[in-house]
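$ ./design --mode recover --in tokens.txt
reading tokens...
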């Protein structure tokens, strides 16, 4: 199993996704990003999708370092910390996992020709800074703020350097009021900071992802809001389809 952890993304999969909400990540994060880069990217669809995948690989390589630090160090200091991952891993394996991820990150950086791009480094320095704060804070309420920024950076990572620069602000706004806000509810609930048992209902999810469409009317005349329109419309369509499927299956079993 330790060998399996060498590859970036595998740690995320084994400790979070395998028994978690992989469908949510697939529909509301990864496919949403591909939808945006395919339509709003500066190059061809193939080039945009490839750049998005490499950007995500660079991101997850750094992000998993935060996961490893959280699981093997920070969680032990928390009252209700979840000790995920290989708790008995030796320092040799931990260093090997770290070296592999840093190597992959630099390979991705070179492939995307971002080695001298200040925006690229500012993004990842910000990611590392926020994850360090998240891991070392003992204030659970304060960690809801760092979690929100981690969620925003996670969503933006595969597309911020691929879509046209004039669309980044609109996409960032949609991500903040849609993806980030929804995930923060789940985080707060998991930490017993919020009592909201109905948040997992398909009806609630539908209502939550329909509401950002109000912004479509407000921002209609702004040409730089195309990314906002596409992202919020995509989420609304996915949530509506999920609700329709849920209703159909419920009626079928009755």
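writing sequence...
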């Amino acid at each position: 199993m330790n060998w399996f952890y060498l590859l970036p993304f595998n740690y995320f999969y084994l400790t979070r996704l395998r028994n978690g909400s992989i469908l949510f990540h697939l529909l509301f994060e990864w496919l949403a990003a591909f939808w945006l880069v395919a339509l709003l990217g500066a190059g061809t669809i193939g080039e945009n999708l490839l750049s998005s995948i490499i950007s995500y690989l660079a991101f997850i390589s750094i992000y998993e370092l935060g996961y490893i630090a959280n699981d093997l160090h920070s969680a032990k200091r928390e009252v209700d910390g979840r000790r995920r991952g290989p708790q008995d891993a030796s320092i040799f394996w931990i260093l090997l996992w770290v070296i592999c991820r840093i190597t992959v990150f630099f390979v991705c950086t070179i492939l995307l020709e971002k080695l001298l791009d200040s925006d690229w480094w500012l993004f990842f320095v910000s990611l590392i800074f926020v994850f360090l704060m998240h891991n070392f804070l003992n204030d659970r309420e304060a960690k809801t703020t760092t979690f929100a920024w981690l969620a925003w950076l996670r969503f933006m990572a595969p597309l911020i350097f691929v879509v046209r620069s004039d669309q980044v602000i609109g996409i960032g706004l949609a991500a903040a009021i849609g993806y980030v806000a929804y995930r923060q509810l789940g985080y707060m609930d998991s930490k017993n900071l919020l009592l909201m048992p109905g948040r997992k209902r398909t009806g609630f999810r539908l209502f939550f992802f329909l509401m950002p469409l109000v912004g479509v009317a407000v921002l209609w005349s702004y040409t730089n809001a195309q990314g906002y329109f596409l992202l919020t419309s995509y989420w609304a369509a996915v949530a509506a389809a999920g609700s329709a499927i849920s209703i159909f299956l419920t009626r079928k079993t009755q």
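exit 0
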